[in-house]
Amino acid sequence: MAADSNALSVALSLLINLDAALVDIVLLSLQVSLLAVCLAALIGFPLGAAVALWRFPGRGLVVVALNALMGLPPVVAGLVVYLLLSRAGPLGEWGLLFTPNAMVIAQVVLVLPILAALSRQKVEELLAEYQEQFVSLGMSRLRMIQTLLWDARFALLTVLLAGFGRASAEVGAVMMVGGNIDGVTRVMTTSIVLETSKGNLPLALGLGIVLLTLVLVINAAAYLVGEWARRRTG
């Protein structure tokens, strides 16, 4: 018990003094997750809206696939990205494996289905309200997508925060494709696993506190955005 208490006090000291190793790990984690979520949003939101608007053969299968991929196991995503980026893979010549870019790709694979599936649901709800107006105005589907995504921006911001929470808390996929290399690809989740196995509890606890705080902030922000959006539309 005394050892655990001492580890916690050292962890708090690391946080208060902004330990260089801890700060570097946190910054890289935020950089990777933010970039991954932004890329996933640029692809996932228009994709979700397009699936909501267009009727085509096999659309039901696409919807089912997007919903199923929301629960994609991280290790499976990591394995797929690893095979693509390995030297024997189709993208091996790019030399991305065991780099932050590989971790970004893995997180995009995980987050994109979440953003696409949830944005499709929201856009379909709005389309049911506005479809007659769109038809009377003779709007193109591309214009409809832009209008609906803009109208759903507050709900999509909540979705975006949920995606960021998934990305920042992920460990399996990023460890497989990033390699957990000190000073290069070591992020909060993989560092916690490594430092705990090494017995370096202060650093693991410090990173755990930062990660838990980040998750709480994300959930609080999602709640506040949702409440603010409801008051605006209420």
Give the topology:
Blueprint: H1 2-16, H2 20-53, H3 59-69, H4 74-85, H5 100-137, H6 141-151, H7 153-168, H8 172-178, H9 188-198, H10 201-233
Helix pairs in contact: 1-10, 2-5, 2-6, 2-7, 3-5, 4-5, 4-8, 5-6, 5-7, 5-8, 7-10, 9-10
Domain ABC transmembrane type-1: 26-222
Membrane topology: Multi-pass membrane protein
Keywords: Membrane, Transmembrane, Transmembrane helix
Gist?
With about 230 residues, this protein is mainly α.
Provide structural commentary.
- The chain crosses the membrane at residues 30-54, 61-85, 97-118, 148-167, 203-225.
- It is a multi-pass membrane protein.
- By secondary structure, the chain is mainly α.
- It has a domain at 23-185: MetI-like fold.
- 80% of the residues lie in helices and 0% in strands.
- The chain has helices spanning 2-16, 20-53, 59-69, 74-85, 100-137, 141-151, 153-168, 172-178, 188-198, 201-233.
- The longest helix has 38 residues, at 100-137.
- The protein is globular and about 70 Å long.
Primary descriptors:
234 residues; mainly alpha; MetI-like fold; 80% helix; globular
The named CATH superfamily of the domain at 23-185:
MetI-like
Structural class by SSE content: mainly alpha
Number of strands: 0
- CATH level 1 class label of the domain at 23-185: Mainly Alpha
CATH architecture classification of the domain at 23-185: Orthogonal Bundle
In oligomeric terms, what are we looking at?
A: single chain
Overall 3D geometry?
globular
**What value does the Rg take, in angstroms?**
21 Å
Name the helicity range.
over 70%
CATH overall fold name of the domain at 23-185: MetI-like fold
Strand content is under 5%
* Main β sheet profile: none
Annotation field: number of helices: 10
Mean pLDDT: 88
What is the N-to-C succession of helices and strands?
A: HHHHHHHHHH
> What is the first-to-last residue Cα distance?
52 Å
In the predicted model, the low-confidence regions spanning at least 5 consecutive residues are none
